[in-house]
């Protein structure tokens, strides 16, 4: 049992004496903590809400003004050590939009002393030892962004900037930061547990295609040498892990925590396996007999199998799973092994399909994937946070600004969000190119209206130079706040495995009434000192069309001249692979947007976003999109080339050439995949048809495609014809030389 006893400025734990500068707080906690600890021992850990745990003994130190990043700060706080040290690839910004701050402040609220090592140098272990040895564990994250996506463009060029670093300086985090940081922590203190999490670890929990090396990589849990991986928004898992370690348990005992991934040597007895390691099952499978149901010979005397003995393992072929009554708590799905998916793209796409079908917290099962002799064991998805729990996380004692050690340095990511408010988590859109669903889940988790309004007032009162404008009330999707499945807790919701609640059609069980969001907008802009409340997060316009009153409120009061929106493409082929709605939905929303802008007497514009080179997108599709853009007088400035991020369904398409949205087999239809650098750049050039730099390349392409009729100076033409230059030949740039320059640049 934990003790927190104060006697003359001293807090006592089971093994150590810790000097405490707040003895009164400790005395006041003694009886309550003992009582709460006894109660906790009598109940299942799964029943704990985020803030129901008895606080760790170090709570008596109180709330730190800043989570310390140096020994000097620890000394000022009176700490002899940290219980938990978080290592991050981002600069330390004490704000609820930065993962390290959220987890750090949350663990502090649980009573732990938390230190942070932001952006450590990775050439040796010096920075990793700066705060000393943590009592419980190192928590490792690459930061708010995947370190590879942060550092490289979709064309695999190294970026020179980093928005999460002071003064936008690039090169302050290593490639594959989770692996590098974990190994250095292990070198610094071999006996300290290492816990990895954040989006980089989350999206690499099983074998995954790695765009940067163009091969399948093992689970990051193996490559990093960490003890446990937490995936998704990990407050529930991190609380359970921290309190268990604080109570003296070992990480090896924590085998069933939701939202975690561990390594096992073998499968424990009593489990049922759903075998998904094949895609070529015969059309007829006989009744389940041995070897599908068996007891291993090693468990029986003299190798004799006793039919009455309890089964150590029951194996069911994937096609027969629906005919079985299975216990979710003792059933797992076996994915094709790392070795198999490395050599078989179809099996890789199949594994991706299965993983996404098992993503629901209501019916998702344990996933197991063999890596050599080890089993990667992915526990069931985490339970989404309740509104009160979300409020508790966002109401913690954040400073809402960068650590003072950065002085006047500008951190672009902070400047972008310092006057914005995150109102929800999750996304049920399921766009195949996006990783939000894989990381945060499909269930929308919303804060209470009052919690959001309180944060707006904090911004008004705390942010230096605040002008009265809230830059965004949003999240992964601006208009999913408060939208839930009306059947989530019914038998229908418990069985549902749809990859999207809004594709191919909006589910009839989905709440689409935006009145809760509309009311929030109105109350926010009525707060004293608030002049404008803008919406900058992405908008799901097919949902918005279900509630014209929301569109009217949005367009009349919350658009700052421009509203960004993402139809992504105009053609049905690529849109199907993206799981995005028809362009007709965009055009219907555009009509409503212009109508309410006119009624408000405002000139406002939609800024559409599009993707080039997405799996399934042909050159002809991009040409049609370019003509659509020209017809609608759009000249996109910033355009996006498809970026194959780990675990996304579109990445499985990119690697395998197959469509995991459908049941797979070896004769499945092949998708057109723009992989070659030249083709990817051509598709991007179609999006910027108006840029003279792209005209030589587009002329060549149009000629090759038999569409020379689109070259000319008329309204019906896409690009102008080449005009002979009056300059000398030495300075003339023709299509061929431009093409060579592009090739050389790509090689560099």
TL;DR?
The protein has 748 residues and is an alpha/beta fold.
What this model shows, in words?
The protein is of the alpha/beta class and about 750 residues long. The protein folds into 4 domains: about 5-265, no CATH class; about 270-370, no CATH class; about 405-690, tm_1862 like domain (pyruvate-formate lyase- activating enzyme); about 690-748, no CATH class. It has 25 helices and 28 strands. It has a 12-stranded mixed sheet with strand order 6-4-7-8-11-12-18-17-16-13-15-14, with helices on both faces. Strands 1-2-3 form a 3-stranded antiparallel sheet. Strand 27 (about 605-610), helix 21 (about 620-630) and strand 28 form a beta-alpha-beta unit. The longest helix has 19 residues, at about 25-40. The radius of gyration is 28 Å and the shape is globular. The relative contact order is 0.08.
**How does the major sheet shape up?**
12 strands, mixed
Under the CATH scheme, which architecture of the largest domain would be assigned? Alpha-Beta Horseshoe
Strand content: 5-15%
Number of domains: 4
**Structural class label:** alpha/beta
Oligomeric composition of the shown chains:
single chain
Mean pLDDT: 89
End-to-end C-alpha gap = 61 Å
In the CATH hierarchy, the third-tier topology of the largest domain is known as pyruvate-formate lyase- activating enzyme
Number of helices: 25
Q: What's the level 1 CATH class of the largest domain?
A: Alpha Beta
Radius of gyration: 28 Å
Strands, total number: 28
Low-confidence stretches: 1-46, 288-305, 726-735
- Approximate helicity band: 25-40%
